[in-house]
Design brief:
This protein is mainly α and 159 residues long. It has a single domain, classed as Orthogonal Bundle (Cyclin A, domain 1). A two-stranded antiparallel sheet has the order 1-2. A hairpin with a 2-residue loop joins strand 1 and strand 2. The radius of gyration is 19 Å and the shape is elongated. About 10% of the residues have low confidence. Keywords: Membrane, Transmembrane, Transmembrane helix. InterPro entries: Cyclin-like_sf, Cyclin/Ssn8.
Length: 159
């Protein structure tokens, strides 16, 4: 089986959306995290790269004081994404995130509207990653190991 990686698409799109080093690193981390899901089997690499850029732009700490994905709860990520997309249409002033009178999120939205990329697939990928981060937040490795060890001992498989 051949799985194509979204890193090339991510690198190519960094210049298009004028991503900062911090945003690029966050998007790269999101791409790394997506390998712990089944997304690479179902979606094209460019779709995953755009999803990573979208999440990086929405979750960047310097934009609205939102923490990065590794430190936020999934519900905070979802509400932050909604707030950023809502405020993208209302953004005013000369903030550093603005590019030619538009925020980066607005620029991404315009770019997506003009492209032939499947927006529904990007939404599905985004929801899958938010669900993944929520599951990771509730995962307790110590508790899981204890439960597995109890199961093994109860079945007598430890001999």
């Amino acid at each position: 089986m051949i799985v194509h990686h979204p890193y090339r698409s991510l690198t190519a799109l960094q210049g298009t959306f004028s991503l900062t080093a911090e945003e690029s690193n966050l998007a790269w981390s999101i791409v790394n995290d997506h390998y712990m899901t089944d997304l690479p089997l179902f979606y094209a690499p460019h779709t995953i790269a755009i999803m990573a850029i979208l999440l990086a732009l929405v979750l960047r700490p310097n934009a609205t004081g939102i923490q990065s994905a590794s430190g936020s709860s999934a519900s905070n990520i979802a509400s932050a994404a909604q707030a950023a997309l809502t405020s993208a249409g209302q953004a005013k002033g000369g903030t550093p995130e603005r590019q030619g009178g538009r925020t980066k999120v607005q620029k991404l939205a315009s770019w997506l509207a003009e492209s032939t990329i499947d927006v529904e697939a990007i939404v599905d990928c985004t929801q899958e990653m938010i669900s993944f981060y929520e599951a990771q937040e509730h995962y307790n490795e110590k508790l899981t190991r204890e439960q597995i060890n109890r199961f093994i001992k109860a079945r007598g498989l430890d001999k």
